[in-house]
Specification:
Helix content is 29%, strand content 22%. Helix 1 runs parallel beside helix 2. Helix 1 links the parallel strand 1 and strand 2. The protein is elongated and about 75 Å long. The chain is an alpha/beta fold. It has a six-stranded mixed beta sheet with strand order 4-3-2-1-11-12, with helices on one face. Strands 5-6-7-8-10-9 form a six-stranded mixed beta sheet, covered by helices on one side. It folds into three domains: 240 residues, 4-Layer Sandwich (Purple Acid Phosphatase, chain A, domain 2); 80 residues; 35 residues, no CATH class. It is built from nine helices and 15 strands.
């Protein structure tokens, strides 16, 4: 039998740190995931939510998503869960239910349509789920209602896009609630959390997984693999994981102790050189600067232009250094000095605006 494939949290349209290049990265990883998935001739592709990063996406990202859904639907059945990023405002509006109008093989699970039965090989499989619900009480109530329907298929799969207790905080679904409904299903799949892993608290009752993401949305995720899950021959206990091409990311943490600005600049520069070859780099340095903090270089991205994002943060060890910074006396000359040492001397209009605002309000 051909596999069941699960892809989640592609976040198309996310402009990470306002970098336009990141729009391309998220499209590329989504397209790579879908291409690799369809090469496996799956019986079903399940999208676990947050296909899009915004409820009103940019046209290019929306087009990439619609094309991807149609490409998949021409070859197989498609099941879509609605994630939190795809829902706008207190009314909970979203474009996602419209995907089902694009093709007869596209099915969107929601509280209005929480159940679906499909033929998968020579078996029938029930897919059950609902859109992201932020309120914990309502989310767990909806979960129990969806799980209360008597099984009518050979296999039953629960599809969620919710934070499970212990895996993301704040959570909408407690471990106790998930374990309570687990006996009604043969497989539980959950999007929303970007790190692929088992939900161990219910695994002895029902195989349960967090699917993971196809692209990393922050430096906190730099060590996470990116890819999708493949279930073959209805074996839900040992899925295969297929990695996808995503932008290379690394986070480096340093402790520089007490250090002069010129030495700190040399340390940061050498660290950046040592970590070349990635497109997204964050350098976090703990340091007590023994000298003028404004002599610490700020505009590293201007020097190392090959990086899509180069993020350098310097924070002090001690509260004493923080107090010294807070008590720094500001003046028009301080502002001019900051602009000079930050490489912003060509921004005359911005400098004049800052000084005028300081003169009017800062005193």
């Amino acid at each position: 039998m051909n596999p069941i494939i699960c892809i989640s949290d592609s976040h198309l349209g996310y402009r990470h740190r306002s970098k336009t290049k990141r729009l391309f990265d998220f499209r590329k990883s989504f397209e790579d995931a879908l291409s690799k998935a369809l090469e496996l001739n799956p019986e079903v592709v399940i999208f676990g939510g947050d296909l899009l990063h915004h409820p009103k996406p940019d046209p290019v990202s929306m087009r990439a998503l619609v094309k991807g859904l149609l490409d998949a639907a021409e070859k197989t059945q498609v099941v879509v869960i609605i994630g939190n990023h795809e829902i706008a405002g207190h009314l909970g509006t979203t474009y996602a239910p419209m995907y089902a109008d694009l093709h007869e093989n596209i099915h969107v699970l929601s509280t209005e349509n929480p159940h679906l039965k499909l033929s998968v090989g020579d078996k029938t499989v029930g897919f059950h789920g609902f859109q992201f619900i932020r309120n914990r009480e309502l989310a767990e109530k909806t979960l129990r209602e969806v799980a209360s329907v008597s099984p009518s298929s050979d296999f039953e799969i629960l599809c969620l896009h919710q934070a499970v207790e212990g895996y993301l905080s704040p959570h909408e679904i407690s471990r106790a609630a998930l374990r309570e409904v687990a006996p009604n299903f043969n497989l539980i799949l959950c999007g929303h959390v970007h790190k692929r892993q088992r939900i161990s608290e219910v695994f002895d009752v029902c195989p349960a997984y967090i699917i993971g993401s196809t692209e990393r949305v922050s430096f906190n995720e730099w060590e996470n693999p990116t890819g999708f899950m493949v279930f073959e021959d209805f074996d839900f206990t040992s899925p295969r994981y297929v990695e996808v091409s995503s932008a290379s990311m690394r986070k480096v943490t340093l402790d520089a102790g007490s250090i002069a600005p010129t030495e700190l600049n040399r340390l940061i520069e050498s660290t950046i050189w040592e970590n070349g070859g990635v497109s997204l780099l964050q350098v976090d340095v703990k340091a007590d600067v023994s000298g003028d903090i404004l002599d610490v270089k700020q505009n590293w991205q201007d020097t190392f232009t090959d990086y899509t994002i180069l993020d350098v943060n310097v924070t002090p060890h001690s509260t004493e250094a923080e107090v010294m910074l807070e008590s720094l006396e500001l003046s028009s000359d301080t502002i001019r000095e900051y602009f000079e040492k930050s490489g912003l001397t060509c921004q005359d209009e911005l400098l004049d605006t800052c000084i005028n605002l300081f003169e009017e309000f800062g005193r």
